[in-house]
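Just curious: can you write whichever protein you like plus the matching structure tokens?

***
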Amino acid sequence: MFTATLMLHPMAAILLILGGHPWAALATLASYLLLLWLGGNGMIAAMLLKPLEAPYARLLAPRWGERNVVVMLGLGLVRPDGTDDLQPIVLSHSRILEALRLHRNCVNCGKSCKLLITGGDTAGFGATEAAICAGLALELGVPGDDLILEPESLNTFRNAELTGRIVEAHGFDRIVLVTSAFHMRRSMMYFANFRIPCEASVADCLQAIPTPVPVGVNLAMVDIAIREHLGILRYWIYSALDLNPGPRGR
């Protein structure tokens, strides 16, 4: 998003030169270099990530109830070139690990605990993310009876809506939500929209790399953070216009 916008600057500069506007082209290139430096040196990434991630942390000492569920939000699937092996995308692995850690913690405390894995076939691979991640959970020792799949959602808002129905049907009294720190604020807003009282436990966090020389990873983090802020803004606008669907029966 930010990176794609940056790439428009050189193309615009070329068109301005061809159109006989060299000073405008020079100003466009100067703005391109400034934005590239600010985005790539970590400054913008840090500013955008802090309000998303700062309120949340890993839940180290959960207070479990009698009927507990750990809800893991997925991020997508990838298929490496030349293979038929569907795998969770890179940041999904930390979410799986954190969800399994919490499930084991709950079981070790002698409590009943389910692991609810969300995610449909967002990439059109013919398999759902929930199913692929559940297969990994089984391989890593989670009993099949403890797994609940939500394989229909294609976005975070739908994750929250369908998870709310499952929580209501099972009567869980303790819900822990697992996702990446940059994604947690928006996720908690969506779950609150459907009146799902959950506690956050982050699986991973992003941290900008301060550097005088622009690096691509900082630009990638700017793109990720902008997408989250736009999602939050869209939710606020929809709420102001009363366009966000809420829990059934409202």
Remarks:
- The mean pLDDT is 91.
- The chain has two domains: 2-53+212-240, 67-202.
